[in-house]
Write a sequence for this structure.
């Protein structure tokens, strides 16, 4: 590919979308990628830079002189992307790049944006937007929009403000076009605008935009002045990342893992939960060890250890996942904690009854030891109910304590339930074999 | 709330967003909700209907006469929403509603849309869009858009077609406004338009829109004629649902579960995987039963059954989740199957070595039986490697066979690995205690 014929590469990349170029870059070496970058025009180079994965971007930028970063990338970007990229740079490099920027307005915007918390509305918004004054006419607006639109990729909505920059409402381009040029904006805009404050959390923003199907949402400061807007693409990314995180949590993986990762990265992400599993296993061994004499007398008791542990684990994961998902999807707590626990108990009672009977029938048919048959069925019944309630209660408790409830899914709940399940099983087994 | 003062309720609901009204409705009884619906104006009533959960909507519509469904809801809806709702109705009711519709064009569109597969681009697109002819001028366009825009909620993009209705390109409203009224469209539109065919799968559509950050994507038929468009809100819902489905799969829950569901719904969703867990447990009991004499002689062997089972299960779930997630996120298969398996083996080797040493140290310190200490460590080593490879291989195989790989996460992989892990453990234990 790299036969160094600059003009050919250039001509070939011209019609490609930045996202596609980023994908191609991904397969090039550092050297090659850098070479290709310098061939790209400013606007395109910066668009491509946004599309490549964060880690590659960091490594790439580290190699470049600050004035090049400023002139070739940051100046062409939307303020939100620029701020994101700058936030990843080292303090010194960041300052140097800001100094090198010719567009001081853009530099100022970036500094402002960097002030906000990274996962607040202020931290993800872009300052580029189209706003008009409520006192203008449609004609003035169209002229003003032409001027402002140069900096904005897509307009989506036009925000209407008063003389103090306070957000008054929203206007669609459609409405603007459908009205005669003499109409005053204050007569046609929609005052029911949904906005968020700069301090709002990303989750809230995503929830609002999803609920009201918004392409973009305006961000205002504490006294209602329009500060920026957040567009749907930021929110799609966030929704996807959140879902992936919960998924990984329940699978016992910490941190972001991709199949392209190196061996040690995969190892590091998988290690913590496996360690918990190991500790749980050791505790299980201790529980069993403390019942050594029963196990020695009645070897059959050991046969159903995996069954009890597996059922306890599975039921626990199911219960905790349902709770975590309902919390994540922002379901309003129409049902009180107690009502939810009560329902979980009902579900657990039904599940426990069904499975206790199933295993009873199996054991009754397959062999004659009635003590074992009763021990297993009764233990399974109790274990399922306990695991359900425990799996529901723990994430709810964590949520109350403002700890991420997803922590309580997957390996943690499985391990806990395994141990407690064994304890219950052996206790009941002991009772049966000693009593009768 | 229901003091029956119609005008008050009406006045109170007027400024509310449909999504908010839908939430309030959710807490009313059927009777009350119906009453409130009939108070709402047509446009708003249909917007609210789209927002309420599918199940409630079905129940609600069943109670209404067909002519009311047609005149009060379907006529006001966008074609995609109307088709979705119609698809849920019984055949007879569907026909009756279509017959009752006064807007025959809308009825025709709905019939056309119902022809497409539900999860294809054709099945999710709306026919409402704004399209202009490439030979028109900006002035003609603006006039034409004013006419077309009445049927379209949000314009987003203007699609440019030739005389045969074939999609030629795309034009933003911004560009239209920025150009003088005499300019011909063919000189200003962007011919690099990304479109999908009516037969494209929902996943593809979501991937394209996400990759290129599109608010809307045009849908064309096999010869390139513009048929409809899909907007971002449909895709956000899809992305969210997909993620939820995978999450539930790994948690051992089938079907869509919400905490508000009834007890029997929750039970039904949880039953299948628990049954697999039970069968796995019974198979585990059989495996242990076949090693009864060893267990009777060396009771301590039983102590580490939960540890082996838990580690096998956890490692397997981690491996399978990583594969499933990479498939779901549409990562291109840069790495070949063999390369990925090789890497998994490396990760597994490292993990297995670490944990085998850890458990060896524990057992060495805590007690003297060297046979048991060696058995547990060596088994754990083998089990971890086996579970990793198995957990990676099975979902990849399913994917090849065009079966949803997510089926192989959670309880299935855990159960399989549990049983095989026990088998390995007892086999090795037997060897050690007999040999030495």
């Amino acid at each position: 590919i790299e036969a160094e014929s600059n003009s050919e590469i250039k001509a070939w990349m011209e019609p490609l979308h930045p996202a596609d170029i980023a994908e191609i870059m991904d397969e090039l070496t550092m050297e090659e990628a850098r070479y290709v970058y310098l061939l790209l025009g400013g606007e395109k180079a910066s668009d491509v830079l946004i599309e490549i994965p964060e880690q590659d971007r960091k490594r790439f930028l580290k190699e470049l002189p600050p004035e090049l970063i400023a002139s070739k990338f940051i100046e062409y970007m939307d303020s939100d992307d620029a701020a994101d990229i700058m936030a990843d740079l080292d303090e010194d490099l960041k300052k140097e790049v800001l100094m090198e920027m010719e567009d001081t307005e853009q530099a100022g915007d970036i500094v402002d944006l960097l002030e906000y918390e990274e996962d607040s509305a202020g931290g993800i918004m872009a300052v580029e937007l189209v706003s008009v004054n409520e006192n203008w006419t449609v004609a003035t607006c169209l002229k003003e929009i032409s001027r402002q639109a140069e900096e904005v990729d897509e307009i989506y909505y036009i925000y209407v403000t008063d003389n103090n920059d306070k957000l008054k409402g929203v206007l669609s381009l459609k409405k603007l076009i459908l009205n005669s040029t003499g109409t005053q904006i204050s007569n046609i805009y929609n005052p029911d605008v949904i906005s968020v404050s700069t301090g709002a959390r990303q989750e809230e923003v995503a929830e609002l935009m999803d609920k009201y199907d918004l392409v973009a949402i305006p961000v205002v400061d504490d006294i209602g002045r329009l500060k920026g807007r957040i567009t749907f693409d930021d929110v799609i990314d966030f929704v996807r990342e959140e879902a992936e995180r919960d998924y990984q949590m329940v699978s016992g993986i910490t941190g972001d893992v991709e199949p392209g990762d190196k061996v040690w990265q995969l190892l590091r992400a998988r290690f913590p939960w496996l360690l918990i599993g190991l500790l749980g296993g050791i505790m299980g061994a201790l529980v069993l060890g403390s019942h050594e004499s029963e196990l020695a007398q009645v070897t059959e008791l050991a046969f159903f250890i995996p069954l009890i542990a597996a059922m306890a684990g599975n039921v626990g994961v199911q219960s905790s996942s349902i709770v975590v998902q309902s919390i994540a999807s922002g379901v309003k707590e129409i049902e009180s904690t107690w009502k939810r626990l009560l329902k979980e108990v009902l579900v657990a009672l039904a599940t426990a009854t069904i499975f206790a009977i199933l295993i009873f029938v199996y054991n009754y048919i397959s062999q004659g030891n009635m003590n074992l048959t009763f021990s297993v069925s009764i233990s399974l019944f109790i274990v399922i109910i306990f695991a359900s309630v425990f799996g529901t209660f723990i994430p709810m408790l964590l949520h109350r304590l403002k700890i991420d409830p997803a922590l309580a899914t997957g390996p943690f709940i499985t391990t806990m339930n395994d141990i407690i399940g064994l304890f219950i099983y052996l206790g009941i087994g002991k009772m049966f074999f000693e009593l009768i």
